[in-house]
Amino acid sequence: MRILITGGAGFIGSALVRHLVRDVGADVLNVDKLTYAGNQASLKIIENAPNYRFLKADICDGQAMHEAFASFRPDRVMHLAAESHVDRSITGAADFVQTNVMGTFVLLEAARRYWSGLEGEAKADFRFLHVSTDEVYGSLGQDGLFHEQTPYDPSSPYSATKAASDHLAIAWQRTYGLPVVVSNCSNNYGPYHFPEKLIPLIILNALEGRQLPVYGNGANIRDWLYVEDHARALHVIASRGRLGEKYNVGGRNERRNIDVVQRVCAIMDRLSPKPNPHEALITYVTDRPGHDARYAIDATRLETELGWKALENFDSGIEKTVAWYLENRWWWQPLREKVYSGERLGTLGKD
Ligand code: NAD
């Protein structure tokens, strides 16, 4: 099985590459532009594996994508490359429109050209998984869950561009017959998460005795999934998901942001004690514009049709995550110093 992955140097992409190279034994070509969010250190464990290759390229570059398809001849594409940070999309949406919308269009066209030239079994077995987010559905009230049929209602420039890319992917299936399947996942957390995102930001700020910024009153609710559970789900959906369909991915782990922050503080009190409890560092800050109140995923279709289940519950996953950051300074210290001063606000989404 030859799998072309885009964005495999990012947070989820690197978990997926590690899973496919080590556990599944697939031949993987990782196509990544290495933006600020791409980090080859996340792939150190598998970088010398004979079934792993890396190509530094922009998915918006049609010629480069065409050549990647022609030379690697994938059986499958798993498309994760994106601009993914909501706060950055609010202050600079252009890169999001370019990569998330144009880049997905360019990649779909390169895939279509390649797939059109295939024959027989190779053509019948080819699959394109477009990886997306639950943020395309907008915000929930106190009750209810996002289903695959929930109408799209994105709030941020990030989620609007992801919604557009989902529509492109489904349209390429309906119009051209390209064998596309789409996944929409809730907030991920776990090791190798870029230090501008909520959970690593809170862990590292707490470690350094800095303020722990919480948007608004901290009551926004997210549905958290351990990143390795997501990687397994993506492999299952790409392998056996019905073409032209969408699959919601989530771990049934709804938490208020303030509860997540307090949980991290309690673990830090145990693993890295300070004279004052870490909770004293929590600082409420002005809410993000367009901040969705609640996300929660109904993953029944994925669970019943494809037999996937989240293996990690939030309490064990967050414990493992905090411990990982404390033990892997080599990974995050250079990012924290070079890219991120530690004073900027983190976000409270997947963002
Ligand atoms: P990330 O920001 O950590 O990684 C994105 C990767 O894409 C980086 O390696 C970056 O270098 C690469 N990239 C960006 N622009 C590119 C371009 N033009 N060409 C080639 N590579 C490019 O993102 P992530 O959190 O790992 O998310 C991966 C995917 O999953 C995204 O599509 C995102 O929308 C989706 N998603 C994320 C979450 C979450 O909680 N993080 C949840 C659901 C869905």
Automatic annotation (TrEMBL):
Its cofactor is NAD(+). InterPro entries: dTDP_Gluc_deHydtase (IPR005888), NAD(P)-bd_dom (IPR016040), NAD(P)-bd_dom_sf (IPR036291). GO terms for biological process: nucleotide-sugar metabolic process. It catalyses: dTDP-alpha-D-glucose = dTDP-4-dehydro-6-deoxy-alpha-D-glucose + H2O. Keywords: Lyase, NAD. The keyword Cytoplasm does not apply. SUPFAM superfamilies: NAD(P)-binding Rossmann-fold domains (SSF51735). One of its GO terms (molecular function) is dTDP-glucose 4,6-dehydratase activity. The keyword Lyase applies. Residues 4-321 form the NAD(P)-binding domain. Its EC number is 4.2.1.46. It comes from the Bacteria. It is an enzyme of class 4 (lyase). PANTHER family: DTDP-D-GLUCOSE 4,6-DEHYDRATASE-RELATED. Belongs to the NAD(P)-dependent epimerase/dehydratase family. dTDP-glucose dehydratase subfamily. This is dTDP-glucose 4,6-dehydratase. The gene is rfbB.
